[in-house]
Prior knowledge:
By secondary structure, the protein is α/β, with parallel strands linked by helices. The protein contains ten helices and ten strands. The protein has two domains: 24-108, 3-Layer(aba) Sandwich (Rossmann fold), CATH 3.40.50; 134-256, NAD(P)-binding Rossmann-like Domain (Rossmann fold, 3-Layer(aba) Sandwich), CATH 3.40.50.
Amino acid sequence: MILDGKATADRRLGKLKEEIQASGFTPRLATLIVGKDPGSQLYIRMKHRACERVGIESVSVELPGEAKTGEVVEEIGCLGEDHSIDGILVQLPLPRHVEQETVIAAIPPEKDVDGFTPLSLGRLLSGDPLFSPCTPLGVMVLLAEYGIPVEGSDAVVVGRSLDVGRPMALLLLNAGATVTVCHSKTRNLAEKTGSAEILVSAVGKPGFITGPMVRKGAVVIDVGISQVGGKPCGDVDFSAVEPLARAITPVPGGVGPMTIAMLMENTLKAARERGCRPAR
């Protein structure tokens, strides 16, 4: 079974558009990008197109690549004080000289639609999230949409990043799974991944998960995306793993579209939480 993230995201975005139209409110999302990285600019454009599609207003803030940490924080402060803005998204990664943790911590928690601030991650850890990070949340929604049970399952997450790996493990744990987190220091990795009923890979290494690493009948979620020969490629060796898996996400068209759909849903949620002003 192919877990079609694009089709699922399209359905949810259609419903979201109807919700926004019926609500009488106009949510507003601000995106902030530092520098001219082509990949980051592409992602920003995709997010703004999604906003336009569902009826969310969007504002784009672009800072030069040489902007200092203090300048980025100051811009976030202005967006935080702007009562017309419901959600703030900082496009990652930031240039190396910009302190990412400082920047993320400057986002007001009530506008943290990416779910990355310390308070957002702390609430996720406590089991009472306000905004969950969009990519892991998209994975959970995709599993639910296809009727794949999480409670009681053995889940393995490969990768421990703050934006995907760790929150992914927490969401699975909160849903009742028994979770193992693997990373670059993990010994006997294939033994760990081979025990997973649900396997999530988020390491960004093309073809990293091979057939011998996957249990027959497992659900395999490929979060990684890289470029190989000018084409997108995931962490999972799809041709080798697909015959073994009960269900698998493709790259592209799997988790990526779900990430953007969850951003849109989080933005509407932020607008509602803040008592979003009526549409103009």
